[in-house]
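Section 5: illustrative case.
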């Protein structure tokens, strides 16, 4: 049986119609480009739950972490193309947009 390397440190538990998956801090941190310590800090602040399975094994819910980062996402800026044709504001010194050259 082949295992996907991206899910090497992931554990799936049966939970009815959907399965809940859990990962170690290192795997989650690598997925989001963070330090593993950041994942533990989020748990310390109560933003995500940690599931301690043993003295040295701590797992985090993949869905809970994904929901946290999705809720913190800042909407992308309006594309500049939507502002074409809008006149720039005039400032007292006569330059456009407030930038001096």
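Designed sequence:
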């Amino acid at each position: 049986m082949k295992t996907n390397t991206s899910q090497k440190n992931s554990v799936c538990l049966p939970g009815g119609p959907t399965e809940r998956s859990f990962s170690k801090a290192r795997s989650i941190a690598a997925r989001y480009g963070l330090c593993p310590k950041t994942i533990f800090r989020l748990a310390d602040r109560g933003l995500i739950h940690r599931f301690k399975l043993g003295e040295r094994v701590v797992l985090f819910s993949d869905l809970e972490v994904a929901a946290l980062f999705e809720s913190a996402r800042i909407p992308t800026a309006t594309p500049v193309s939507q502002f074409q044709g809008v006149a720039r504001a005039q400032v007292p010194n006569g330059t456009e947009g407030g930038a001096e050259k």
